[in-house]
């Protein structure tokens, strides 16, 4: 990810600064038993600093093999400390030959793989340091250095994790903004062309009557659906759908859809099932009351519950009709309405009075 770039550059600077620090410590000490081996170690550190800086600058190389080699080279340089310094210098608590350079792989693991990897690599380096300096008389010195390494691995990994999350959110925000701008552009274009044509077809169809009236009704339904589709309000959260937009597609000259001013956000699957159940109820209205029959759809949200009511002014449902239909294998209401809601844990209530119409009430917890 792009956010990792500054961290890798910071680690490269840290390696170089730590290398210089280790060389200065090596130069000022005169009591080492094997100073030539010590300078050889400094040379290895310098070569690896250059190689690691180049390797980590290429994103495809930031993988387990490079991280493992980085840790192994660091451990090798660290474990030479007792042979270079000698028992007396070790017991006095002298800084290890690589000095602070040993923290570089810990930072690399933390940046690449997060807190756990950073803490694990810190534990490995700390174990090597404890072994190489086991003769130090002041145990507090080793404990402090071990704690600092572990904290560095955990904290850097945590910081990188937070930075990556922030980058992902910024990327999503940028994509949503671009999509919103494109949606606004399409809305303008569609409003100036398609919506006006559909409105004209709807109006002329009603005026002409007959088959043209049915064509006008269909054009009106498509106009309402398309108008809702290209509306330029803020997009809902990922994985959710505003139920109002799905219900609006059922609107027509004979069907009035009333929804709240605020979004009715539901999981995508639940919203689609509710809209399909409403569609099935309206199909029943058209089938039993005629295509021109009036119907009303009312959506409400109260105390965490979404309620959608479909009401008509048809002849009503005779008592026992639904049970008889289910027994005869006609499962429209049982499956298309009640079945859908049962799968989501919702409820369906059907109230019908002969001669006074039918009311289907669908309730679902949001």
UniProtKB/TrEMBL annotation:
Q: Which residues form a coiled coil?
A: 163-196
Q: Where is the Histidine kinase/HSP90-like ATPase domain?
A: 276-364
Q: Is the keyword Kinase in the record?
A: yes
Q: Name one GO biological process term.
A: phosphorelay signal transduction system
Recite the UniProt keywords alphabetically.
Answer: Coiled coil, Kinase, Membrane, Transferase, Transmembrane, Transmembrane helix, Two-component regulatory system
Bilayer-spanning residue ranges: 6-24, 36-58, 64-84, 91-111, 139-160
This entry's Gene Ontology molecular function terms read: kinase activity
- Is Zinc-finger among the key words of this record? no
Q: One matching Pfam family, short form? A: DUF5931
Ranges for domain DUF5931: 1-168
Q: Which InterPro entries match?
A: DUF5931 (IPR045975), HATPase_C_sf (IPR036890), HATPase_dom (IPR003594), Sensor_HK_TwoCompSys (IPR050482)
Q: Which residues form the signal peptide?
A: none
Q: What is this protein called?
A: Signal transduction histidine kinase
Organism field: Nonomuraea thailandensis
